[in-house]
Write a structure and sequence with these properties.
Elements: E1 29-33, E2 39-40, E3 76-81, H1 103-127
Antiparallel strand pairs: 1-2, 1-3
The protein binds zinc ion.
Zinc ion binds at residues 33, 35-36, 38, 66, 68-69, 71.
Length: 128
Amino acid sequence: MSTEPDAKPVVDTPEAEEPPAPLTPYEMDRYECRPCGYTYEPVKGDGKSEIPPGVPFTELPIKWRCPVCGSRPKMFTSIGPAGKPSGFSENLGYGLGVNVLTPGQKNILIFGSLGLAFLFFMSLYGLK
Ligand SMILES: [Zn+2]
């Protein structure tokens, strides 16, 4: 009795190991210095610290400091890539009246309008 060896062809599926496309400087996040408002733009780099254009903020040397006020990178906030319309995230807080209300204010609005609806309903009954 000879057991037939399972012919298991070793399928070497070549995995598509495509390296992720490198971000263009326009897709890298810009970072704003909170103390002074300076914006590090990867597109421009930082000439004063000899940072060439195209270096993402996260890969700046540890010793890098804000060229304007000397703050550490910790003090910087991501303000999104240059490719996006600037100021979008900053403007989210404006113009959305109901969304900036506190829960308490919302309750007042909700119960207030419910009360008004109830009164309106009762007044309809009163007319009959
Ligand atoms: Zn600064």
